[in-house]
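Z., the sequence and structure:
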Amino acid sequence: MMNAAPIGDAPKPDRKFALAWASFAVSIAAFGLKYAAWVNTGSVALKADALETIINVVAAAAALWAIRVAERPADDNHTYGHYKAEYLSAIVESALVLVTAYAIGKTAVEGFLRPHPETAPWIGVGLNGVATLLNLAWGLTLLRKGRAERSPALIAGGHHVISDVWTGCGLIAGLSLIPLTGWVWLDPALAALVALNVLRVGWEMLRQSVSGLMDEAPDSATLTKLREVIAETATGALEAHDIRIRTVGAITFIEFHLVVPGSMTVGVVHEICDRIEAGLRRAIGRALINIHVEPETKAKHTGILLTSPPVV
């Protein structure tokens, strides 16, 4: 017997799409500020920072596409939905980040070979500081909303924006020292640090996206929580085994075998499954749950042993 749970509450694509549009607008504003900072100073480090911000613009545009595609309902060609589209967006962003790191590194090398003093450094520091504050506010918003919506595209964008904040803080501190110390070499050195930070963030984003595409199981804490929910809500059943869980974007797929007494009626079994499904959805939100019901002769005694008295 296969019992398929409804997916749960209806998604709110308009809210996620609005966040993606706002992210696109913020990334353009930040790029404008950083571009102005570079033009006014000629700083190699600020040029590197502006190059990195171009990726934010492209990534925000990719997130707009991915979120729209991910929220499409299942169809004949995609019977499990389009949720993985957001992982594709995050992978594209990761690849672009790595390309940008190379371009920034090349800029840093050129700065070491042909160092030159900055012009109007304090204007550059001020403009970059405004962009950094803008990114801080928006990055924290994206992370909070992305986790609430369970959106890989929004979370990846939030991590990238926050990495810009750390970069911006380092650049502001370093560039402020150049007019005070006369250490011209600090400019390309800061650009090299920007490249390294971009590489770090890009690799982490790529790793997380590949994990999602490969259906990596949730962390141990989540697995333990779901097993506890099954044990608490399966009153009347004997055992649950072969539990498999994967998360794809905003939805979790759960499959397991439920062992019940052979004398139990189909109606009672259905009530138990409904109770389990409701408990799982309360715990994790949207989910597609498949429960394969088996008689007690199929018990493996290796899964969740349910000690409550059977209901027949």
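The two ends are 17 Å apart (CA to CA). The CA atoms of residues 64 and 87 lie 13 Å apart.

Let me know what you think.
H.
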